[in-house]
Every structure is written in structure tokens, then in C-alpha cells.
Design brief:
60s Ribosomal Protein L30, Chain: A, CofE-like fold, about 260 residues, alpha+beta
Length: about 260
Amino acid sequence: MTAQLELTALKNFPLIEPRDDLVAIIIQSLKDSGLVLENGDVLVLAQKVISKAENRYAYLNDVKPSEHAIALGKKTDKDARVVDLILNESNAVVRHRKGVIIVEHSLGYVHANAGIDQSNIQSDATNPRVLLLPKNPDASAANLRFELKQQTGVEAAVIINDSAGRAWREGTQGFAIATAGFKPLLDLVGQVDLFERQLEATKVAVADELAAAASFLMGQAAEGAPVVLIRGAKLVPYHLGSCDLIRERAHDLFR
């Protein structure tokens, strides 16, 4: 059980360009923040940091939208080129209205506009670009964790987070699109509560709770704090990524 958490947004974290050495930048930012990475720490990185480093940009002038994208763009009042990218990144459209398309992303989770974004990225007005999610976020997180261990000798966990709305609440919050080094979902079914009643359905999305806490420090606008160190989480080691967090379609009341 975790009695106390410390969350620190890393200082002086630069704008990331394709093929930047993220591990070297993180280590330097830790030093600038007066921090030394310790075993059991969690590093939470905003999705944009990973996507930028992996050059996941798409230039709209290069996109030739399909008829489907053109039609859906008219229904949602969105650029047909962006809609085409959304469809290409998705398994299915779940819902849509003016300004937003909710999809089942090809990575499995339900997300607005397939996570494609134009905020906080530099773009040329004559050929605007958007940023896609990483191709394989869990692999990105695992690779980052491995490289950190190679260079620091420390066993740290990694979360890549993004922000999303929820079907039953207003506002966005952070959630994990990738994890490495710990169990992202704890199944408490069969355990007992304070009054010895057996839990029948409780599962705790540990990764999402940590991602949301880190997202609060990161902010959503011009804060410029895309990496957060979490200390004291006492996580359960795990060799797989974030797949346990994906709810099966058959059990999803909103699809």
C-alpha cells in the first residue's frame, strides 16, 4: 500500500525534435531538477514527447482524402485530410458529432480523433502538420526503460500518457497509453473489504491513476512540463505492457 507519493515535473525539458536522444535529455533534466533516479521511481512522459522523437508527423498537403473521409468531414465539420488520417489510424468509428470523431484506435483503446493533435507543435501554415500517436507505445516505453537502466543502472518504470474525455464525465484527464516495468491493472476480486465482504468486481487501473496525477502537473496548454517523476508508488513488477487496461468490446457498454 502506498501511503505517500511525490510528483515532480522535470525542469528545463526542451522541445523535442525527431531522433533526439530522449534518455540523455531526461538524465540532464533530472540533474537540472536536483533529482537522482532511484529504483522504483516512475517516469511519466507526455505522448507528444515520444511521437515527436519518433517523427510521427503527418503533413496535410500529402494526404489525399478518401470519399469516406470527405463525407465524414462534412458531417463533423473537420478537415477531410485530418479525417482521413483518423480513419487510417483506427479500427472503427464509434461515434461522431460536429468537431469530434470517437474511434477505436488501432492500438485498441477508444479515443477522440485517434489521438491526432495539432496543439503544441510547430507548423507551417502553407503545409500544416499534425502529430500521430506512436506506432507501438508499449515498445517505446520498454525501450526507454531499458536504455535508462543501461545508462543509470536504475530499475525505473515508465508510463506514456495522453489525455482523453470520458463517456460519463465532463473534462479531460490523463490516461496511460503505454507502460513498462509494472502491473498497470490490479485485480482485487476475491479480496475482502474492511467488513470482510468479498470484492466481486474491483479492478484498479493503477497506470491511469498515476498518469492522471502526472497530467495535472504537465498541464494542457503552455506549461512546458511533459515529463514527471513519481516516487513512492510501490508498484507490482510486470513484464508485459499496458494491454490489460483495454476493455474487451463485448464488455463495453459504450460500443
